[in-house]
Amino acid sequence: MKAVRMVREVWRFREFVVGSIKREFQSRYQRSQFGWLWAVLNPLAMILVYTLIFSEVMVARLPGLDSNYAYSVYLCTGIVTWALFAEILTRSLNIFVDNASLMKKVAFPKVCLPLIVIGSSLLHFAIISALFIVFLWVTGMLPGWVALDAIPLLVVEVALAIGLGILLGTINVFYRDVGQTMGIVLQFWFWLTPIVYVASIIPAPLRRLLEWNPMWPVVQGYQDIFTAGLSPHWPSIAWVGIIALVAMLLGMTAFARLQAEIVDDL
Fold first, then answer.
1. What's the pLDDT score for residue 217?
2. CA spacing 20 to 30 A to 185: which of 66, 74, 139, 163?
3. What are the start-end ranges of the E strands in 155-237?
């Protein structure tokens, strides 16, 4: 019943959520001459630079793939995927601190705040993904229908990021060191995930240990789809989905129980 009531409350405040996402998008490029075009130019520059350096200058290759652009696709896939995860998690860490005045002055379902973070992040991710799809089409590496397998991967990734974000964001209200620490943790987490390097170069014992990293199968799933045209390893994704579900339940439970204290402490 609580879940149904929560959905109804969010639906009642849907205009607030959509308006907030729109304002966030506009504020990012406010007073810039090119405006929202920067949302296109920045990821386009990233794709072109990686393609030029790794495909033409360093002539990097992926084992088992003949395409000159395979490593560029592999790298861009991992970086774009990680950027979405890191953005949602990082913004969620300060979701209550940054909206302290709003939470004190305006009566609205607080679950709207994570939805605004998700919506804003996915909007930018959609722009980058559209450019990436065009790049795949131009280079002849568009994977076909298997690309639809990225949708459940995206759901799991977003659920994991927002679940951890809400949980840690709740703790961060009372212990601000959490937000500072996560910046360091994310740097190590990035390099413990096969984004820049190929997993096969890691010694087997260490690889078995690193595979406990929940972002490992998610990133590899995207890379399998867009570099080799293969479906992800679904049992591994299901395991990450369970972790994401547990993180969301813990985060929402912690926030529900500490909501009054959070508002008072801000």
1. 94
2. 74
3. none
